[in-house]
Structure formats: C-alpha cells, structure tokens
Write a structure and sequence with these properties.
The complex is a heterotrimer of chains A (416), B (62) and C (496). With 416 residues, chain A is an alpha+beta fold. Chain A is built from 14 helices and 16 strands. In chain A, a hairpin with a 7-residue loop joins β9 and β10. In chain A, α7 runs antiparallel to α8 and α13 packs across α14. The longest helix of chain A is centred in the middle third of the chain and has 25 residues. Chain A starts with a helix and ends with a helix. Chain B is of the alpha+beta class. In chain B, strands 1-2 form a two-stranded parallel ribbon. In chain B, β1, α1 and β2 form a beta-alpha-beta unit. Chain B starts with 18 loop residues before the first strand and ends with a helix. With 496 residues, chain C is α/β, with parallel strands linked by helices. In chain C, the strands form 5 sheets. Chain C has a 7-stranded parallel sheet with strand order 16-15-17-14-18-19-20, with helices on both faces. In chain C, strands 10-9-11-12-13 form a 5-stranded parallel sheet, sandwiched between helices. In chain C, strands 1-3-2 form a 3-stranded antiparallel sheet, sandwiched between helices. In chain C, α15 packs parallel to α16. Chain C is globular and about 70 Å long. Chain C starts with a strand and ends in a 5-residue tail after the last helix. The chains are: A alpha+beta (416), B alpha+beta (62), C alpha/beta (496). Chains in contact: A-B, A-C, B-C.
Amino acid sequence: MELIEQANQEAIKRILSADPVLVDVVYAKDIVPNLTDKMILHAGPPISWDRMCGPMQGAIAGITVFEGWAKNLKEAAKLAAEGVITFDPNHHHDAVGPMTGITTISQPMLVVENRTFGNRAYCAINEGLGKVMRFGGNDAEVLQRLSWIRDILGPSMGKALREMGGLELKPLIARGLSMGDEMHQRNVACSGLILRAIAGVMAKTADDIKSLSDSLDFISSNDQFHLNIAMAMGKSMMDPVYDIEGSSVVTAMARNGTDFGIRVSGTGNEWFTAPVEMPEGLYFAGFTEADANPDMGDSTIIETIGLGGFAMGAAPAVAGFVGAGAASEAEDYTRLMGEICVDENPEWTIPGLNYLGVPTGIDIRLVVDTGISPTINTGIAHKEPGVGQVGAGIVRAPLTCFENALRRLAENLGIS
Amino acid sequence: MTSRIENGKKHLLGDPIVVLNIGLENFSHELAECDTPVIQLDWKPSAGGNPELANLLSKLGI
Amino acid sequence: MAYTLNKVYQGFYQDSVALMRLSRELKERVGVKEAALMMGSPSNKQILEDAGLLTDTGKAAAGGDLILSIQATDVDTANAVLTVAELKIKGKDNFSTAERDWRPKSIRAAVRAEPSANFALISVPGEFAAAEARKALMHDLNVMMFSDNVPLEEEVQLKQLAGKKDLLMMGPDCGTAILDGIPIAFANKVKNGDIGVIGASGTGIQEVTSLISNHGGGISQAIGVGGRDLSDEIGGLTTLAAIDRLDNDEGTKQVILISKPPGERVLTSVLDRIGQSKKPFTVCFIGATGLQLPPNATAVRTLEETAQTALGGIKFYHSERIDLKVCKGRTQIRGLFSGGTLAAESQLILLDAGQAVSSNAKVPGAQDISEAKNIHKIIDLGDDQYTQGRPHPMIDPEVRSELLLQAHQDSNVGVILVDVVIGFGAHSDPAGNLVNMLTEISVDTSPIIVASVTGTEEDPQIRSKQVKTLKSVGVVVAESNAEATRIALKLLGINS
C-alpha cells in the first residue's frame, strides 16, 4: 500500500523534525486545556472509578484531599465513587503522567514546546522515589512534598527556564544516550545534565537561599528527575503525528493499571485497549511478584519515540536492572524493536551499536506481522496504595491492541 | 557450439543475486557453499499463524 | 492400551524438515508407537486426528502453535519421551539471546539490513507462503517459491503483481532454478553455456540441464515457473515473463521449454510468444501430441530428446553390454520415482513401445494405477499420498524402501526402475541409501534394478561416485532416465 508507506514517511518526518524545548513550569489550571475544578486526569486510556486498580484509587483519594475537595481519604473515595469528581486521561489534555499519572489544577506542570509545530505538552514534576503519589502514596508526607513542589520548586524552575529562554531537549537526549541512559528506567545522566544546565540560572533567579538549596538538593538526589521531562517531550513530539490518513504509526501507548491502550495515527483519537500485563522483572529485597500491581502509567510515551526499551542498547546497565538478561544482550532488544519500527533516528544514536539510530515510529503492521510487541522498561508499583515502587522490569504491550488497531485501519482504508 | 559466458555480462536479475531465504535452512547453507550471499530469516508464521490477520497484513503492504 | 499425549508450544515455529527429523528420532525410542511434531494448522490437525494422535490439548492449538504428539505403550514412557523431546525442541528456541549473530525476523527488516537483496527463496508452509511472497514482491524482490498448496487465485494475484513490478515470480511449487550459474534449491552444478531453460517441472529441468552439461553443452539460465503456471487458470504468466527475460538475455542463444501439456488457451499464447522470438526453441510438452509450432520451434517428446536436440541433434549412446537375464515369468516393470517428470518420461517411452502402463501420475494414454492390474506400474513417490507428513523423497528417500520390498515380493516384477537425483537440495548420498535398502531385502529371486543418476560431476554427491556405488551391488546404471527405461524394456525382451 503506497498510501500507508507515504503516510508513515510523513509521520517519521514529523517525529524527526520535532524541536522539543523545555520552556516553563506553570500551574495546571493556567495551562492545561479543558482542565476544570474537581477533575482528575490519570494515566492510560479512559477508565471508570470502579475499574481502577488500588494504587490509582489511592492516588486519587490523596490528590482529592491535597486539592481540598475532601477532608480525608475516606470522604475523597466517596466523592470519587459518587461521580462528584470527574476523570479523564492525561492524553486527552495534551498531558502525560508517570505511573498513576495524577494531574489536577494546582499542580505545577513542566511545559515542553515543540517549536517546529508550535504545540505544547505537559507533565507534572517527578516526586522522587519511595513513597510517592505516582505509586499510589497518599499520606501526610506525600502530600507535604507535593505542597513544596507546588509552592517552591515549580515556581523557581519556571522562573529559571523563562530566564534561560528554554532548554533544548533533543541534544540533551543525544548526550544522555551516549552516557548510558535510555530515559525510562535510567535517567541518571540526563537528570545530571538538566541540573548542570539549570543550576546557575536558578541561583541567579532565586528568591532565597533555602528555597534554592532545597530545590537543587531535590533535583540532584532524584535519579529519575528527568523522566517526566522526557515524557512531556515525547508527548510534544507525537501529538503532531496524530491523524495522518493511512498511517500505521503508533502515536501513544499508555496504561491505567487495568487496561493497556494505544492510539495510531491513521485511526485518530480512538483507543485500542486490552487487559494490561504484569511486568516481569526484579524485585527489591522483601518484595515478590505477589506484591506487584499490573503495569501502569503514560511513561510508555518514551518507548513510542524510540527510547526506553527501544534504546536498551544504549543502557546495558538497565538490562540487568530490569531483569532483561545480561548486559551484552541489551543490544538484542534494540535490534528486535528495529524490526517493528519504520525508521531509525539519526540524531539519537547508540555509540555501542556503531551509532545505530534508535528505532523510531512503531508500525502496527510490523508488530502484528512479527508478533514482536513493544518492549517497555518500567517500574513496578506495589498493588496496595501508598507502598510505592517494589521493583523494575520489562513488560510487553498486549498484541490484541495492535491487532484491533490494524483491523480498524484496514476498515478505514476499505480493505478486507 | 557452446560459448563460455564472458565476465561482465548482464545478470538475469539486473544485479548479482543476493538471496533472502525464508524457510528451510538447508537452502541457505547450500547457497553459501556456492559463495552466494544469503541471509537466513528467523521466520515465524505471520500474525502468530492467524490467517485473517496475515492476509490483511499482506494487503496492507507489509 | 496405548497412551497418547499432546503438548502445545504457543507461537513456536520450526521448519517442517527439522520437525520430521525429530519425530522420526522420537519414534525410534523404545515403547514409542508414534510420534509427531506438527504446526497446528487445520490440515495438520486433521492428519493427527486421522492417525489417532490428537487429544483435546492438541485440538486447541492455533496455526502458529507447535503440537507435539507422542503415542506410547504407557503414561510413564510417554512422559519420559516428552522430557527428551522438550530438551531438543527448547534447544532450538534460544532465538535472539543465545545466538550472537542476529537474524532478521521479517522480510522488511532483512531488506533494511541488506538493501542489495534481490531474491527471496520461500519454503514456508503453504498457508503462509502467499503472504510472504506478496511482501517480498512489495519489497522489489524476485521470488522463488518452493512451497505448494497455495490457492490458485493467490497464485494469479502474485504473478500479476510480479508482472506489474517487472519481477520474476517463480512458483509456487517451484524447486529448481539456475540463475547466472548459481544452482538454487534443487538444482545441479552445470557448465556455463548459452542454452536457456524454462520449466514447469523441477526434475525435468534437472535431467535436461545435467544431460546437456554432461554431453558438452552448457546452461545460461534455468528458470522454474511452478507446476501450474501453464494451466489456463494461471495463463502461463511466469512462462511468458521468463521467455521475455531469456529473449533479452545476451548470454542465451536458444531456449528450452519443458512442461506438462499446457491448457488450450495458454498454449496459443505461449506459442505466439515463441513465434515472436528470433531465438530457436526446443519445446517438450511431455505427452502432448499434434502440436502446431512456429518455425523457430522444434517439438520433442522426451527429456532426453530435448537435451539431444538442444545440443544440435546428437545421440547419447550406451556402450556397455548387459549380461543379465530376468527370471522366467517376471514380465513387468515397476518404476519407483522421486522425480515426477522422470516418471512421466518413462511412461511415454513404455507407451511408445506399445506397452500398457499404469501410474499414480499418469500421462495421456496411461491407465489409472488403482484400476489397472498386471501391467507396468510407474509410481511417482513425490505425489501427495507419499509426502503427507514427511519430506519429499529427493530429500529423504526412506519412502522408497517399503515399495522396493513390495516390488521384490511381487513375482510378476522383472525390472525395478529407479531414479537417483543428486545435486543441491537432494539427499547427501541417495545411491548409498538405495544400496542399503537393497542389501536389507533378502528374497530368493530378485528383479533386476535399473537406475539413472540425474546430476553432474560437479554436484556435491559427485555423479561418478553415485554410479560406482550403485554398480557395486549389481544395479544397472544408464546415462539417462530414458535410456534406463529402454534398458528395462530390453531386459524383458521388448523392442523400443
């Protein structure tokens, strides 16, 4: 089909020509489109309260208290069940969020602008490891940290970014890849690069020394700080690819802890969902598979742009960490993902693989044909709300999503 | 009555033959023995053996 | 009471030859009555069902799943064999991780890795073959498809697509080609020359190209078109494309065309096309009569005659005297052929000598093997009834052993006629295999065995070595299959 090939070339052109720049940090209520009061955005495809997993419900209860819509967690859960609180996927609001992916009006959002196309995408700031809301945490400590991010870190980062005129992300990712990051499970290098780029300006624009030192401490102690920036970047790169007639390129992959969903360029904004799978991986001491929550989060936008599991060859250390096998096998994952992608990204290359570009543009036809589903590097959340991360691993996108998307694409093209 | 073919003649396929072998591996080994470039695919049935999807795929230009 | 055990391996693919080898290995174990490893396609499940080897577990398998079935004397034996089988199966399953040399999994990935690829050789199971061929054509690859059981309409579509893209679509059911001197799949290492060959039959091409090469000639190109190409349904699309190619090929000075008699409509278009060529054609439509050929074409009846005509009308002579005598009362020839076209050629020669002959792959004038009694029998062992669930007899001649014993025990059979096809793709020592079978048979009076060896000195098996092996146990070896058939007749006292 010439139409599909041309449509996919157009999709690739748009992905590769993107120019994502981290420009600001702004409160969600002031910037996220169509986000209203008492509305909670979550990760993954649409889902109702009763079908949500434990951590997702926990996070929602927590944020409801944080926003002051309920006095306590019990009341929050009641409001959610009664429909007083409304839910919508981040993806429907130009936004993404890791794990539970909770977004509400008062959260400060990282703003990434794709300067080639003029569109913007948003993601909340990464809270760090351990007991955090993205893993369903909702106690006082969690909420206190969120307040600090809202009141101190967010505004000071925003001020610094505006002063800098934005921070170009494409070259930063290229450097990160050469430093062993794949930007999903490993963001050590990129987080460091961000800190290096922003620290001086933050000092220059800081209101007081305590806020500055707390902020710099927070960023420098969080190896995954860059994850949320990468996610907003991914969203800003893929949104212009949405709705190219005939294109079989995946524009989004996301999980809500119950369903895995994908969107495909040629089928517009329709979600193709299937029950989410359990990650396979390694657990922190004291935890086992029995503690694990099914796969969750919008962070699969990272794989959608060719990073994460697709760039495993750049991050041999991650292969061991996520239990994907020996470090020497990391490159097999990248080559395998190359089988299901339209092209490679010549600007994001992996030195260890002879500067092979990361596989870019997941083609649902190739996924269904080869039976190779996208490999996703992921954190594993405890199934009980509030416990947090218990391990890391890899998870496969369910093939059913791709098969159903393929049927719909064929139908749209009048092929049976 | 037969004439040897000179070097530099036009090839039947336009270029020297470079083979993708999809299926029986023995064919690959034998072609390699004749110094013919050959790539053996690690083939599995398309779409996990689902004929409906395999058929759809071949029409969608995979 | 036998116990049958099934196990299903989801999405696990192995090529059929590897599976058949493993099932034979398992079958040889003590206490095992039957063992089978098959992909879970509906046709395979039917085969297993018919053989009483399918349990509910196996019934649930999908087309891309592998079914292992073991029938043993008891549960324990079956489980023990399962353990052995699993080790062997899994040993081959370490696809991406154990093997350091990466292999592409799809045509698209392979083409990306090797952009100069221009040819796809496809031998996957028939139900998946058409889809792979379409992909290959879409990636501008010429295709040779060894797979068969592809629906007619798919074959037409693929050949039309190939025509549109100016690519060669050889097959389905095409096992033989020699392109720019390179033997592909079932083919022989022949001398280079100026004779181009187009054939709907693999062994026909092999016999003719080998005879030409062994008698001073040489081959420019040999293009297989697939068994059904010259049927009216397919319309000779590949044959016509192949004629175009050879017409434009500077290295080809004359063209040979070998096929079963074509359909009526396709015959007209092929002969028209031949008439437009400036090159001489030798046309062998095995069994066809009364052909009206254009002036630049010569009609011939047998494969031997085809080679002789292309070589300028020379004759192949057999100089050895044969001092063997057939036992009294034994008056029939039993042909056990791995090559279908060789079986057809033998039938023609018998018919031309005024003999009645029956076959499971009969030429015009021959009788149905299931009805005719007490006449010469020519059996094509490559026919579906002999190849269900096992490799083609050219790869694994095992199927011949049982029929060889039957022929020995039949007191009417005076001569057993066999073909030994060597070359690439074929068994590594078919003559040795035949000799082993013959030495295992012990009967008081034996028929005389007459064989021909299709192949050349340059083939991996080396023709003269194969001949020597056969002669060491008293097999009469002819220069060609046609001559072998004439010798058989002569031994029975019939003039040909």
